[in-house]
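FYI - complex with adenosine-5'-diphosphate, inputs then prediction.
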Amino acid sequence: MGASGIGKSTLLHILGTLDRPDSGELRYSGKDVLQLDDIQLARFRNRTIGFVFQFHHLLPEFTALENAMMPALISGMEKRPAMEAAKAILVRVGLESRLEHRAGELSGGEQQRVALARALVMQPDILLADEPTGNLDRKNSDLIHALLMELNQEMGMALVVVTHNPALAALVSRRVTIMNGQLHELDEPATLATSLTI
Ligand SMILES: Nc1ncnc2c1ncn2[C@@H]1O[C@H](COP(=O)(O)OP(=O)(O)O)[C@@H](O)[C@H]1O
Ligand SMILES: [Mg+2]
């Protein structure tokens, strides 16, 4: 969380290997991924990381199913298993009746659920979400928030979310902000709170 311009998106882009930092290391399970070349990095990203942005970035002329299966096709998966995987996750996010609809014909909330399905079709280890409900009304935001938390539990992926939404922030286990380019915990550790009361 944190004010606009503080570097939240930049941090997510670096974590997601979309941007390279000027200095420092980026390790996934001990592996320094900044050493990979662009092709290796694209492959790593495709298999390991899912992204959801404020705007869905779907291809409007393609169906929900086609949009959601795109990362699987890019990974080299055959069409049929890619379709099955995309269908399963679209059903899971409540879009069973929208599989063959073009993305451009769907509501904002439905589009963001397709984007979520696309991010999860490869069963990534980590899901990075940048203001995922910043463009949605309260009802659709609550639906996506609940889905994010449920899928985090079911699929066991790590979830890193940038949000201005206190309702979403309240659901996660750790809250941080950025000050002078450094991460700071937003919740006081219990030990500190105890020592203050004493
Ligand atoms: N650690 C950093 N070093 C250099 N530039 C940064 C850093 N963090 C953010 N910026 C720059 O600050 C601007 C706003 O950052 P951004 O990540 O979009 O902020 P936010 O998502 O919090 O609104 C961008 O131009 C970005 O390149
Ligand atoms: Mg941002």
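The pocket of adenosine-5'-diphosphate (ligand 1) is lined by residues 4-10, 181 (CB under 6 Å). Residues 17 and 42 are 9 Å apart (CA to CA).
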